[in-house]
Each structure stands twice: as C-alpha cells, then as structure tokens.
Amino acid sequence: MKLNIAVLAGDGIGPEVTAQSIKVLKAIALEFDHSFSFNYAPVGAIAIDETGNPLPEATLEQCKNSHAILFGAIGDPKYDNDPSAKVRPEQGLLALRKSLGLYANIRPVKAYDTLLSKSPLKKDIIKGTDISIYRELTGGIYFGKKEISADGDTASDLCEYSRVEIERVAHLAFKAAQSRRKKLTLIDKANVLETSRLWRKVVKEVATSYKDIELDFLFVDNAAMQMILNPKQFDVILTENMFGDIISDEASVIGGSIGLLASASVGDKYAMFEPIHGSYPQATNKGIANPIASILSAAMLLDHFDLNDEADLIRTAVDKSLALHITTPDLNTKYDNITTSKVGDFIADFI
Amino acid sequence: MKLNIAVLAGDGIGPEVTAQSIKVLKAIALEFDHSFSFNYAPVGAIAIDETGNPLPEATLEQCKNSHAILFGAIGDPKYDNDPSAKVRPEQGLLALRKSLGLYANIRPVKAYDTLLSKSPLKKDIIKGTDISIYRELTGGIYFGKKEISADGDTASDLCEYSRVEIERVAHLAFKAAQSRRKKLTLIDKANVLETSRLWRKVVKEVATSYKDIELDFLFVDNAAMQMILNPKQFDVILTENMFGDIISDEASVIGGSIGLLASASVGDKYAMFEPIHGSYPQATNKGIANPIASILSAAMLLDHFDLNDEADLIRTAVDKSLALHITTPDLNTKYDNITTSKVGDFIADFI
Ligand SMILES: CC(C)[C@H](C(=O)O)[C@@H](O)C(=O)O
Ligand SMILES: CC(C)[C@H](C(=O)O)[C@@H](O)C(=O)O
C-alpha cells in the first residue's frame, strides 16, 4: 500500500516521540513491502514562531493532500500564563480538528499485565481493564461562541450541540461496541445541562438501531468516581468534548503512564493519530520522553487502513519492549539509561 | 447558643442519614448546653410529589428564617431518563443555592489512617492526603442561559463568569490556605475557555493580597490525572462550578468511600451543610446508607458558628466509630450487621 503521511510533530517532546513512530512505520514498510512517504509541516508554538499562525495554511493543505496525519504534541508554557495572548498554540490543534472535520476522538485505555504495578491503583482494581473512549471532538464548549466584555470583567463560553453532531459519533461508538463487549456508557450531566439532555435523547434513538448493545448512562461526576472505583465496568464510553477531555486523561492513570496512550481522531474524510499526552516542555530533548503512545498511534493509523497484521506486529513489539524493560524512565525500574530513541530502535528492530 | 436549623432531608437515603446527624446534634446540645431547634421542610422529588415544585416557597422561607440548613440528598431516577421532564428534583437544589447566594462549596478530602486499605488507590499514594476544595457554586454553566430549538434538534448551555463571582470565592479559598499549608491550586481550562482565562486573570490579582500563599495553575484534564497520581501535592483547590463537581467527586475515592465526605455551601448571609453523596435510591430504607458524611456536615455546621470544640468532639467520635468498625457495610469488613441508625447511635452515645 502507498500512503502519504503528513507529519505534524509540533512542540516540546512532540518531535522526538514522532521520530520514533516514523522509524517504526519505516520498519513496517520494509517488512510488508509498503510505500510510506512522510511530509513534515509545522503546527503549534513552533508554527507561531515561524509564521505567526499556529496552523499555517500550507500545513492544512499538506494535511488535506495526505492519506493520514501523524501528530506529535502542542503547547508552550509561555502562552499558558498569559491570559491576554491573542494567539495560542492550542488553537492550531483545535483548528486542525475543526477544519478536517475530525469529530470522533478514540482513546483506548488498557491495563498492561506487565505494568500493573506501575499504576497508583491497586492491581485487582485495574487488572483486565479494556476501555475504548469515544469523545466528540469538534463541538461543545470548545467551539461555541466565546465572549469577553469590553472592560474585561465578564466572560462567556457557549456549549452547543446539534442532533447530527451527536448521531455521527454515536454511530461510531455503537459500531465499536458491537465488535467488543457490547456495552456502551454515555457520560453526561443530564440533570443540569440542556445539551446533555439532547445527548441522552439522541443516543437513545440511535440505540434502537443497535439492539445488541446494552446502553447505560452515568453523570460525569459519578463517572469520574467510577473510573477509579471500578474501571472494569466500562467497555465503550461515549461523551461530549469537554467531559471526554477530562475523563480520558483521568483514565490514563490505569495504564500506569500517560506515555502509553494513543488516540485516533477521525471524520468522514480525514484521520489523525496522536499520543494523548501533551508537549511536556520540561522533558524536551532529554531523551526521557516515552515514545510508546506515539508508536501506538502509528499502529492505530495502520488499523485505519485495515493493515491489521502490521498494526498487531507493532503492538507485539511494544509488549515485548515492556516485558523486557526496554522503556523510558517513567516506566523503568530496572535500567536507567534507556532513551526515547533506544525504545524506538528496539521496536523497529523487532519488526 | 441557640440555633434554628432548617432540615431539608430530601430524597432517597437523604432522610435516614440526616436523622443520624440530628441525633448527633441533639447529643451535642445536651452535652454543651446549647439549644438547637430543627424545622423540617420538603425539597426535591418529594416536594415535587407534594407541591409540584422542587423548592416550594415555604421551604425557601424556612431556610431564610433559620441560622443554618442541614441538607440530605436529592434526585430520583424517574426524572433522570426523561429528557422531556420539565420539572426535576435537582432544580430544587440549584434554586436553593442560587436563592440563598451560597457561592462557595467547601469539600474537605482526607485519607483516614484507619481506612487506607479501603481506597482503590495504593496506601503510599494517599496516606497523608488532606485537601480542601473550594468550588464556585452559583455561576458557570449551571446557571447560564439554556436553550433548546423548537424542533428539539439543537441545544445550548452558556457558561458565564464575572469578576465579582470569582473574587468572592477566591478570597475564601486564599484565607483557607493561610490557615493550612499555604498553597492554592486553580483548576481551569485556560488553553480553551474564555471564562477560564478570566478566572486566571482575576485569581492572580486576588493573589497579590495573599503574598504568603503559593499559587499554581493546572488544566482540568491534567488535574483529573494528578488527583490520582499524587493527591498529596494539593492543599487548597479553587475551581469553577462544573470542574468542581467532577474533581471533588473524583477525589472522594481517596477517602475510601463517598459516604464519608461532607460539604459546606456558604454565602454572605446563609450557610448550608450536606453530604456530597447523592440520594442513592437503590439503598433507600435498607439501613445500609453511611451516615458519616451527613454527621461530618453537622460538624462543619458547628464550626461555622465557631463551636469548634463541639465539632471536634463529633470528629473524634467519628474516628472512634471507624477505628472500632462501627460502620455501615460500605466500609465494614468485620461486622455485617451495623445499620445506618446504629452508627448514629454509637456516635451520639460517645458524645
Ligand atoms: C491541548 C488541548 C487543547 C487538548 C484538548 O483539550 O482537547 C488536549 O488536552 C487534548 O485532549 O487533546
Ligand atoms: C445533584 C447535582 C445537581 C449536584 C451538582 O451537580 O452540583 C450534585 O452533583 C452536587 O455536586 O451537589
């Protein structure tokens, strides 16, 4: 297969972890006789520095002309504490999601048997956890109208949802549940929010086309608790943009490291693959950034093109690196000198 | 001291747990020679059944004529899954908060040494955790304009904040930090929300009056992760309404049971005390509901009137009941027949 992949490595540790997934994808191409080309384009703080725009026109064009996008990370602390900054790196990521119509963000959360002891949660709580989170990604309070009064003393953010926005991601989540354990949990705050009541109504209607799926509902506050008390109760989770942001980061503690969590952001036309961790500026260029989340995002990319054997081989290689303690310091209690790049080398060589 | 206390026991397990805190408050009155009177008034689903209104006018009057309010729980599943229900029990609680101007919700989260093993988190992660969460309670997306289109296919919720709303709760939180470990963490989503950027700006300004307090900022997604990875890093947390709802319920896992967590909702004129757990309808009238959260809310009520010795005596009695395993089944691994009422009796007798 021939794939043009746009590489948006972004800020902080983004470039170094993305370099490892490219290494791995090249090994796959060699092994399975595919042809992958990689086209680099700037996004985020680095793009602001170069062009003043966190998502330059040329970068967006590059994405639209590619089969898939491999994304690194975005964000720089120099913008976070400046509430008056007009341009922020995150706008690049949000604009990308919106412009490409990437309305579903899929985040698998798994407890690896070899890493059970790394989690702050007890082993018996997490062992066997296997969740797939479907987060709506182009609507809600992220994209509603934002206002700040002239005197700067009142501000607002509008959370909006329409039936169509809910239906399309719900269908993806129900389909995923069909190929899994056939359970779907909608997380909302229907006892307070009008948008949540719309979510509940529409999702119930969509559910009538998936009679084999057990559907249940959880208020987001309770869900934040249940995720820690008993994560095994979840199979597929479906939720709106902001709740999905919070719940999926929370769920990352189950795997023992956020450095393991991959995600896919898909729409009807485009698809982007990225680790869920951020740009982690303190770690930049120290060789300590865990590349596995990015490498597993590359595996999700392959799955997206039905290259399942290829994706499975990456996952086997990752399991092997975990089992042999070929991992960065966040996970490693045995060796203290395994760098980002060495993990990438090991996984690529294995392939 | 003479105190008129309005008792709004509400739905589900609300009445049975509240009955225990009244028992305990009566024991305190006897022991310390105070005069507490209790005036019952309906709220929530039970008030809807009786009057059609989740917060009847007479109940609100009762609250306004009392020194403090003891609140039970609210909510009934028959409303949760009916997105078209025009009247919902939760509206009673929200209207109460708004009408009484209870803008700050204070939720202490503590790891009890005797209960460390009950938490899904590992002992070394939680031991020593002592957090005080200040959640803004009368603003944000809870109270902003809600709209649903005529065809029912689009909905919206507006999140709004003004400088004053942020300042008043921020002052309370900074003051609390001064009498604690002098650290305050603001949780927001300033990389996405305009309201969060206003929070960050105003809280930084307020901080200039509290130079002894170390102020830091955390995005809500990261905070949801940090709460589990390393809860000991937190002292006072300050956050807006919806994030506070989620983060404080999540934090409840640290104590081993949500049945232990009390809260105070205070404003400039009125104050209300309630367990953070909900109405837990499945448990109603089975004698299994843990009354400790409600009893500790009564202790917060006493603290509010500077009856600190009285409040401390309640807390000592609670510690004793935990140490002796006089607890409901959610916490008890030793005896299986300790009911809600027996826990109340033990604590009242101890006093
Ligand atoms: C960087 C930020 C805008 C983004 C989000 O909130 O969506 C990130 O947290 C994520 O989850 O991808
Ligand atoms: C019942 C509900 C409206 C309420 C809230 O969301 O504020 C509850 O969860 C709480 O935290 O007191």
Task: Summarize the structure in words.
The first copy, chain A, has 351 residues and is of the alpha/beta class. Chain A folds into 2 domains: 183 residues, 3-Layer(aba) Sandwich (Isopropylmalate Dehydrogenase), CATH 3.40.718; 154 residues, Isopropylmalate Dehydrogenase (3-Layer(aba) Sandwich), CATH 3.40.718. Chain A is 41% helix and 21% strand. Chain A is built from 13 helices and 12 strands. In chain A, the strands form 2 sheets. In chain A, strands 2-1-3-12-11-4-5-10-8-9 form a 10-stranded mixed sheet, with helices on both faces. In chain A, strands 6-7 form a two-stranded antiparallel ribbon. In chain A, helix 7 packs across helix 8. The first copy, chain A, is globular. Strand 7 of chain A pairs antiparallel with strand 7 of chain B, so a sheet runs across the interface.
In short:
Two copies of one chain form a homodimer. Helices cover 41% and strands 21% of the residues of chain A.
Beta strands of chain A, count: 12
Structural class of chain A: alpha/beta
What is the CATH topology assignment of the largest domain in chain A? Isopropylmalate Dehydrogenase
Order of strands in the sheet with the most strands of chain A?
2-1-3-12-11-4-5-10-8-9
Head-to-tail CA distance between termini of chain A: 18 Å
Q: How is the quaternary structure best described?
A: homodimer
Strand count, sense and closure of the main sheet of chain A? Answer: 10 strands, mixed
CATH class of the largest domain in chain A: Alpha Beta
Rg over alpha carbons of chain A: 20 Å
